[in-house]
Specification:
The protein is α+β, with helices and mostly antiparallel strands. The chain folds into 4 domains: 2-163, no CATH class; 165-235 and 311-327 and 395-479, D-amino Acid Aminotransferase, Chain A, domain 1, CATH 3.30.470.20; 329-393, no CATH class; 488-705, UDP-N-acetylmuramoyl-L-alanine:D-glutamate ligase, CATH 3.40.1190. 35% of the residues lie in helices and 22% in strands. The protein contains 23 helices and 32 strands. An 11-stranded mixed β-sheet has the order 25-24-23-26-22-27-28-29-30-31-32, with helices on both faces. It has a 5-stranded antiparallel β-sheet with strand order 19-14-13-20-21. It has a 4-stranded antiparallel β-sheet with strand order 1-2-4-3, with helices on one face. The radius of gyration is 32 Å and the shape is flat. It starts with a strand and ends with a helix.
């Protein structure tokens, strides 16, 4: 089983509208093999990957609906080609890694000598890894060799955690996608652009481009944060910074034992020691806390130890959005196991792990925990009595949603704390016996305010209901249902593409839009000197959508490049196909299919009525289709309009735009093929502008004045 070629398309392509891996598979002597030839192969695959028999991944044709499919084991009885089994295993592995594909396809090529697999991917390296693991799995099933599915799946999950966006960012992107907001990852890290051009915003995990850097710095300084909160009436624990262990002991005597010691600027609970009752304990914990400070930071915070569980409150803008209660990591003695052995047993829980996707963190004895054991006269190797409890981590996992329980006064204090620090998104650490009561009446306190808080604990709590935190952050950036989109017009490359693009730009400017145009290697943005951006069409398309002043984007797509690497944007509101006459019409059509596949359901493809393979183009488009002809109203146009399609054609000295039973006449007297505005170029340009939202009345007025 050999992979002759693997091509990654990172945007709409000739196969689909989503990022797609195309794999040419040579099966050699196994090309005629079918699953019905050896049922034991199918049995082995199902034993390793039971999810194969779940509702199958649908495999739509180019732009068509996916056919209904039976379960894997039923199809296997009828005889599946080996390549199709490979596709199905790959899709199951992608789903197990957290990236289930919505598109996949298997087809014979070279008269059955090879197969072409195409399937959606989220991250290329992960898609390739799933494909390679699928090959190993299928080959093991064929040869009755061992295959450790648990270990291989864990490798894929670990790789997914390395290369995918983190759960906080994904929660925001899911909410953005539900709103129709375009999203684009800008780096290998967590920097993501939401929206396009002049309507864009950016996020970095749970921080937005409007998160104040001063607020972030304040939140990093826990003592400064506490001082500011105290001054505005937010309850915080008493305490202050100590430069030495002796000073820490003196502060503890002043505020009263028990106390907590923690670094001045560390996060994620590092270096914190709780419930210290003696100066000896403080002395032992001091160096541990000091060691977690950032370089150049001195001193350790000594403050009152507040009773009660930990709570994490999420504030977005001026609202409390979610709250989660924490639990301590505890092991309970059985009279025969050491503390280390009890921890190892707890870590066998499949929900525990070190990845973002794991529900619970791995239990571990850190330095603070060992100091707690020492104060109790215990070590790692101590055997606990039956029922004896030891806290491994005081602030363990945040597991239980309690949003509905938060008292309004607590919510008000949380919002005030976030605003005082200067954060538009903040995670507040609260210690209180009962979150349903005001903090002041129970001695509850806000102990920290965090920038860039984790969202996964609210999106997928271990217990309770998930909260719409991603929606709240998207609404903060795009209020009132804004979708962050600018009109995007793509033109299939050709000798007339540039002139048509310039005409469309002139029409869109009449709407007051600042237009960005990428034609050839040159980029022109209204109000800015044109500049050259070498590279690919993808690079130039993306530069338009990145530009903070562009309010409408127009680009030229070279068919050869689009065929080879796909399109550079996930959506094209209007796709304009120009003259498609070619000696190799099939190759040319494949080159414009990426543009057609990029048209959303509410968009439009502008197609010449004489285009070869026109039925294929019409069926591939998810949006509206407009046929145009410079030869007047043809039978093809009449038929298309009678079926609800749009048309555009010339009739004497008028340009006709037709939709359903309606026809709009736009006088074009004086516009000739040899003039400054070429009549043949005007037809697709006006059709594109109309499809992009320029009203017919405005188009009629523009053409009457020919003031493009």
């Amino acid at each position: 089983m050999e992979f002759r070629q693997i091509v990654a398309y990172h945007g709409p392509n000739r196969w689909s509208s989503v990022p797609t891996l195309e794999v040419l598979v040579d099966l050699g002597i196994l090309r005629t093999w079918r699953s019905s030839d050896d049922p034991s192969v199918v049995a082995r695959l199902l034993s390793w990957l039971p999810a194969l028999d779940d509702p199958p991944q649908q495999a739509p044709s180019r732009g068509g609906d996916a056919p209904a499919q039976e379960s894997f084991h039923k199809l296997a009885k009828h005889g599946l080609p080996l390549a199709d089994m490979l596709r199905r295993v790959t899709c199951v592995l992608e789903a197990a890694a957290g990236t289930p594909p919505q598109y996949s396809r298997c087809e014979e090529v070279d008269d059955g000598a090879a197969f072409r697999l195409t399937f959606e991917f989220e991250e290329e390296s992960l898609g390739r890894a799933c494909l390679e693991t699928a090959r190993m799995c299928v080959q093991a099933a064929l040869s009755d060799a061992p295959f450790d599915s648990s270990a291989e799946l864990r490798k894929l999950v670990d790789l997914a955690d390395d290369v995918r966006l983190g759960p906080s960012t994904r929660a925001i992107l899911r909410a953005a996608a539900a709103r129709g907001l375009p999203c684009r990852r800008l780096t290998d890290g967590s920097l993501v652009q939401l929206g396009e051009g002049a309507k864009q915003h950016r996020i970095w995990t749970a921080e937005t481009d409007e998160t104040g850097s001063i607020g972030e710095d304040i939140a990093q300084d826990k003592e400064l944060t506490k001082m500011l909160l105290r001054q505005v009436g937010v309850p915080v624990p008493q305490g202050r910074v100590a430069q030495t262990a002796d000073e820490a002991c003196q502060i503890a005597r002043e505020i009263g034992f028990p106390v907590v010691l923690k670094p001045r600027d560390a996060n994620h609970g590092r270096g914190i020691s709780f419930d210290l009752m003696t100066c000896e304990g403080i002395t032992e914990a001091f160096d541990h806390a000091l060691g977690e400070n950032s370089a150049g930071t001195t001193g350790v915070i000594v403050e009152q130890f507040a009773r009660g569980p930990a709570h994490r409150l999420l504030v977005v803008g001026d609202r409390l959005i979610a709250a989660t209660r924490g639990q301590s990591d505890v092991v309970i003695g059985d009279g025969r196991s050491t503390i280390n052995e009890l921890i190892d047993e707890a870590n066998r829980d499949p929900r525990r792990g070190e990845n973002y996707t794991d529900k619970l963190d791995t239990m571990a004895l850190n330095e603070a925990a060992e100091l707690r054991l020492k104060r109790k006269g215990l070590t790692r190797e101590s055997v606990l009595e039956v029922g004896q409890e030891i806290i491994v981590c005081v602030n363990g996992d945040l597991t239980t949603d309690e949003t509905s329980e938060v008292h309004p006064a607590v919510a008000e204090r949380a919002v005030l704390a976030a605003q005082t620090v200067g954060l538009n998104i903040a995670g507040l650490d609260v210690v209180a016996v009962d979150i349903a009561r005001p903090l002041e009446e129970q001695g509850g306190v806000i102990i920290e305010v965090n920038a860039g808080p984790a969202l996964s604990i609210h999106v997928e709590p271990l217990y309770g209901h998930p909260q719409p935190v991603g929606d709240a952050i998207v609404e903060l950036m795009f209020p009132g249902g804004e979708d962050g989109r600018i009109p995007i017009v793509g033109i299939a490359g050709g000798s007339e593409a540039s002139q048509i693009g310039l005409l469309i730009a002139g029409l869109l400017r009449k709407l007051g839009r600042r237009v960005g145009i990428a034609l050839g290697c040159e980029i022109s943005v209204d109000g800015q000197r044109p500049y050259v951006l070498r590279g690919s069409d993808q690079d130039r398309i993306r530069s338009l959508l990145l530009h903070p002043r562009v309010e409408a984007a127009i680009f030229e797509s070279q068919s050869e490049e689009a065929l080879a690497i796909g399109l550079g944007c996930e959506r094209c509101d209007v796709a304009v196909l120009t003259n498609l006459a070619s000696a190799n019409a099939e190759t040319l059509i494949d080159g414009v299919l990426p543009l057609v596949h990029a048209v959303p359901p509410e968009g439009a493809a502008i197609i010449p009525a004489t285009a070869p393979h026109i039925d294929q183009l019409l069926s591939a488009c998810r949006g509206h289709t407009l046929l145009y002809s410079t030869e007047g109203e043809t039978a093809r146009l009449r038929d298309h309009q009678s079926r609800g399609g749009r048309v555009a054609f010339f009739m004497h000295d008028s340009l006709i735009l037709g939709t359903g039973p309606n026809a709009f006449f736009l006088p074009i007297k004086g516009i000739e093929s040899s003039g400054p505005i070429v009549r043949e170029h005007l037809l697709p340009a006006v059709a594109a502008a109309w499809s992009a939202g320029v009203p017919v009345e405005l188009l009629r007025d523009i053409l009457a004045r020919t003031g493009l």
